[in-house]
Write the structure tokens for this entry.
Amino acid sequence: MELAQVRLLVTDFAACYRFYADVLGLKPQSGATHGPYEKFSPHTGSAGIALQDRAMMAEVLAELGDTATGHRSLVVLRVDDLDAYCTTITSRGAALLHGPALMTDRMRVAHLKDPEGNLVELQEWLLLRG
């Protein structure tokens, strides 16, 4: 078994597309800026994040037509230099909720939300720095 992706169901596809591509700097697979589906990949690693229009999935599972409430996901991205990355993404319009700050003696983190309210955690693994 292999994890193919984490998929987020969103209602404002275009805003989320811009966030993951233009703010976080992830690479879109096809350039489908208005959906209903797009996969994003970091420059390294094999994991991916995908967006899917919530209305499209509601045609399959009717309960998804209800308005999403509460935090239902946390997307985690590892970066090499958390301070530099946070500087870059805030200059692109990201608003940090927390950090950069130590979470443990092995990791620094920062948190933000995408346009749909999904939490994004940025991690810098201190053990990799030597």
Notes: The chain has a mean pLDDT of 89. Strands lie at 6-10, 27-28, 37-41, 49-53, 74-78, 96-104, 107-113, 119-125.
